[in-house]
Each structure stands twice: as C-alpha cells, then as structure tokens.
Design goal:
This protein has one domain. It has 149 residues and is mainly α. Helix 2 packs across helix 3, helix 3 packs across helix 6 and helix 6 packs antiparallel against helix 7. It is built from 8 helices and no strands.
C-alpha cells in the first residue's frame, strides 16, 4: 500500500490500539518503583547499621552488606516472591543490587532441569552477562584466599 491508503490504514490501526489499550498509570508506577526501591535501600541501610554495631567497618562492612542483599535477592527469587515484587514495582526492584541477584538466580532456577552446565550455568550467563558473573565468582575466590592468608 502506498499513498493515501497506507496513511488511512495506519490511522485506523492506531485508533484501534488506542481504544483497546488500557491507559498507563505513570504516577502509580513511579510511586511504586520509588517506594520499593527505597524500601530495598532502607533494608540495606538497616543491615549496615546492625553490622556497624557488631563492629564491622570499611570495606568489610560494605562487602558484607552487599553479600547480604545479594543473598536476600536470591532467596526471594527462589521462593518466587521477587517476581511478584518486580511485577508491582518495575524498575524499583531491578535497579538495586537485589535486582542483579534476581537476574542471575531466576534463569538458573528456570533452566536447572536442563542440567548444571547447559541449563543452569549457560542460561545464568546469558542474562547477567559472563563478565559480571565471573567477576562475582573471582571476587569471592579472592576473598576466600585472602581470608586464609
């Protein structure tokens, strides 16, 4: 189609979509993302205060809080809770470090039935990126080696 017919067809299609597409609730979506993202950050701050009270400081404190948030994100993903949080909060659940944990754990859980290597490990690498996952494993390995030296 060319000319006037294609313009008429496009206008009709856009009108059809506008009639059947529910309106986006921008304010509600932004408020949910802000609230959930803020809550995740408050949980991280609570972990930080508790670990500071326990005597941790500096890099050990920062690494411990990050590890706790990553563990919490993986745990909630494994229990099926993080997906429901993500449907409600959108980017508010993706941006914090718990969103990273979810992006690694979710495909690993989903494709576990295909095996450890071709299922879980391969799919985990496609979503989170091989460099990020290798960085986490290398950091954990270096941390374990450093703690034994």
């Amino acid at each position: 189609m060319t000319g006037k017919h294609s313009q008429n067809y496009n206008a009709n299609y856009l009108n059809y979509v506008k009639m059947h597409d529910p309106p986006t609730k921008h304010l509600k979506n932004c408020a949910a993302a802000f609230g959930v993202g803020g809550l995740i950050c408050c949980i991280g701050q609570f972990f930080r205060f508790m670990l500071e009270y326990a005597g941790l400081s500096g890099d050990v404190l920062a690494g411990s809080v990050s590890a706790m948030l990553i563990f919490l994100g993986c745990l909630l993903t494994g229990l099926g809770v993080y997906d429901r949080i993500g449907r409600y909060a959108g980017a508010g659940s993706i941006v914090p470090i718990t969103g990273f944990a979810n992006s690694v754990a979710s495909p690993a859980i989903e494709f576990k039935t295909e095996g450890w290597i071709y299922g879980m490990a391969a799919k985990m690498f496609t979503v989170a990126g091989a460099i990020i996952v290798f960085g986490v494993f290398a950091g954990a390995a270096v941390g374990l080696i450093y703690s034994f030296i």
